[in-house]
Amino acid sequence: MEAQNLVDTKMLRHNLKHLFGFDDFRPGQFEVIESILRCEHVLSVMPTGSGKSLCYQLPAASVPSQTIVVSPIIALMNDQVMNLRASGVRAETIHSGNSREENIDAWMRFIASAQLRGSWDPLRWPSAYS
């Protein structure tokens, strides 16, 4: 499937409502999400409380492939993963606050899930990063 065909507005709005409980996007969110789903490079500077997290959570929850999000804030990461799991979205955290075994287990669950979906190929990078 080509990147420009990945943006399904109806599905995004469905997931926005059913996974996150919102009826509509905040200003700028849809444009950021649309760009992410088109595999475009995105830099979005938004104020606190404007919904930046949704800009990567909704695309990750709306595509069949695995997604890795890198975040420097462990407390925020833990809170977001807890909320994603409560919504039925598979999510893991790997960070310095976990034991080595917890991080290995989380990584192995991530790989196993990707392999079940047929989306794990550690030697292939998305074309957006070529």
Provide structural commentary.
This protein is mostly helical. It folds into two domains: 1-63, no CATH class; 64-130, no CATH class. The protein is built from five helices and no strands. Residues 123-130 have low confidence and may be disordered.
Round the mean pLDDT to the nearest integer and report it: 83
Helix content: 40-55%
Q: Which percent range describes the beta-strand content?
A: under 5%
* End-to-end distance: 17 Å
Give the topology.
Elements: H1 9-20, H2 29-37, H3 52-62, H4 74-86, H5 100-117
List keywords for this structure.
130 residues, mainly alpha, 2 domains, 5 helices, globular, disordered C terminus
Quickly describe the structure.
The protein has 130 residues and is mostly helical. The protein is 48% helix and 0% strand.
